[in-house]
Amino acid sequence: MQFEVWAPQAGRVTLHCEGATRAMGRDPARAGWWTGEAEAGDGARYGYAVDDGPVRPDPRSRRQPDGPDGLSAVVDHGRRPWRTEWSGRPLQGAVLYELHVGTFTPGGTLDAAAERLGHLVELGVTHLELMPLCPFPGRHGWGYEGVSLWAVHEPYGGPAALRRFVDRAHELGLGVVLDVVHNHLGPSGNHLPEFGPYFTDTHHTPWGAAVNLDAPGSDEVRAFLLGSALAWLRDYRIDGLRLDAVHALADTRACHFLEELSTAVDALAAETGRPLFLVAESDLNDPRIITARADGGLGVTAQWNDDFHHALHTALTGEAQGYYADFARAPLEALAKTLTGGYFHDGTYSSFRDRHHGRPLDRARVAAHRLLGYSQTHDQVGNRAQGDRLSATLSPGLLACAATVTLTGPFTPMLFMGEEWAAGTPWQFFTDHTDPELAEAVRRGRRREFAAHGWAEEDVPDPQDPATRDRSCLDWSEPGQEPHARVLDWYRRLVALRHEQPDLTDPDLADMKVAHDEEARWLAFRRGDVCVAVNLGKEVAGIPLGTRPARVLAAFEPVDTPDEEGVLRLPGESCVVLEQP
Questions:
Q1: Could you confirm whether 281 is annotated as catalytic?
Q2: Do the beta carbons of residue 546 and residue 566 sit within 8 Å?
Q3: Active site includes 244?
Q4: Which CATH number fits domain 2-56: 2.60.40.10, 2.130.10.10, 1.25.40.390, 2.60.120.10?
């Protein structure tokens, strides 16, 4: 087979394959590329040496059987045919479920996770969003310090396990979304700089030198990232990609990398006949990211909406530290603004940033499903000192209110694994760095970060302690116990309602009607004929809904329909969904 590698500054490149060594030649048609041939089938080990340096894995490696520092292995996807016919599943109308393979089950593998997919079918979600799968040193970690951007972490099961997982998900009717990280690579096992200018000092990020998207040599770097993204969608039949922290993609070109990526993904969707989509994580509050390219935007399908999370979180918890401060001044007002306008910061002053932030979203051009709404995510749970979920401090009634606003609101809802049954397990920050110095630096940095917020050092879990990961694994005995079973039943009912009631997937954000009472702590909104009310206070709230006849579709606590004056008497820490034509 033919091997090829981009090494534009090399004077000599050697292919090491199955114990044999061969000099590679320059490709006359492509500047900076080297090619060579060797007998190699599926599983064959190989690597490259640049200018007689150490043998390194292929930057485009499809498998790293021995981890990021070991040799690459050939993967022949044609040897593993798909069992399931799959025409795809679009984002519009979806309910997403964020899942970390390493803690979804104690086994921590893709095969073990596949055995639990029936639970998600019963829950009613439509897509799984897998946290990053690229290889990283050690066995356990969040995945955001991955390297080898075309490969699958071997302890999860490697490429073959991912294909089995996707096949099983599709067999059950579940779409699969993969979280990918283009803005940086991990600090350990990253050998790309030995091959070429994959990084640049022109820009700097929290992780050091930026990925080279606009400096000399960036054409091939962009092609590397684009090729990786398309490979997930094509070779593994992934349905969509979640793009980590796109605000950290430093790119000054006239055609931004995200625009180039969205163009390529749309072309692949047309070629395969499957709907494919991109979901960006961005804190820019810039609607151009999710505006169609024809209208001057970047063409990304959707984005995470942290403003919705922050407003809902402060309304539920009363927390006001850090970036919650702006939302905590009047949390229900902030929540009402995000429900009707998409962003809270739409050109307003942000005290956390000490500047104005964001710009208004044009509700006439941007459909509501292009924003993802959630009450919990891996970030918002795991980046707390002790990884405590909402269920650690909130009553089942308030958890039900959070679910109700998320699952009946205008945005594409996303759940974080275990929240549907009010999981009692935390989800903490854990690592398994094999470099002792790096491990100690991460441990100290984590403790120093939270010491500044008043946490005692001994109260911050040690990321390197295997027990930290073990504590973060879901306890699958909980869904059958109370109060978990009751919360799970409520989630199932809400997801079913979202699928049953067309008004709950109406893409018209401008049609949202919201009312609230900050002091009494209730909020209500109407979407077509569906009316939703939540009472975050402890006392019964009188909520004026109008005198139109009403029918209760779902209620967490027993409740009557509005009285003859149109007032709903909603018990404290409870919620209801009504039909009111």
A1: yes
A2: yes
A3: yes
A4: 2.60.40.10
346 among annotated binding-site residues: no
What does the pLDDT look like over 282-325, one tens digit per residue?
999 999 999 999 999 999 999 999 999 999 999 999 999 999 99
Q: What is the pLDDT of residue 478?
A: 98
What is the amino acid identity at position 50?
Answer: V
User: Following CA atoms 158, 163, 166, 170 in sequence, which dihedral angle do they give, to the nearest 10 degrees?
Assistant: -170
Q: Quote the DSSP letter at residue 70.
A: S
Residues of the chain with pLDDT under 50: none
**Residues in Cβ contact with 512 at an 8 Å cutoff, skipping those fewer than 6 apart:** 339, 340, 368, 410, 525, 526, 527
Written as one letter, the residue type at 70 is G
User: Tokens 């499903």 label which residue?
Assistant: 369
Helix axes 396-408, 306-317, angle to 10 degrees: 160
The CATH T-level fold of domain 96-499 is TIM Barrel (3.20.20)
Check 281, 326, 462, 573 and give the catalytic one: 281
Query: CA–CA separation, 261 vs 297, rounded Å?
Result: 13
Q: Do domains 2-56 and 512-579 have the same CATH topology?
A: yes
Q: CA dihedral in degrees (489, 490, 494, 496; nearest 10)?
A: 10
Q: Find the catalytic residue in 98, 244, 260, 420.
A: 244
Q: For the segment 334-380, what is each residue's pLDDT rounded down to a tens digit?
A: 999 999 999 999 999 999 999 999 999 999 999 999 999 999 999 99
Q: What angle do CA 258, 261, 265 make, to 5 degrees?
A: 140
pTM over 0.85: yes
What long-range pairs does 459-467 form, CB within 8 A, spacing at least 24? 459/385, 459/386, 460/385, 460/386, 461/386, 461/387, 461/428, 461/429, 461/430, 463/428, 463/429, 463/430, 463/431, 464/430, 464/431, 464/432, 464/433, 464/439, 465/430, 466/140, 466/432
Q: Is 309 annotated as a binding residue?
A: yes
**Which of the listed CATH numbers 2.30.33.40, 2.60.40.1180, 3.40.50.720, 3.40.50.150 matches domain 512-579?**
2.60.40.1180
- Is 231 annotated to bind ligand? no
Q: Is 42 annotated as a binding residue?
A: no
Q: Is 185 annotated as a binding residue?
A: no
Amino acid in position 206? P
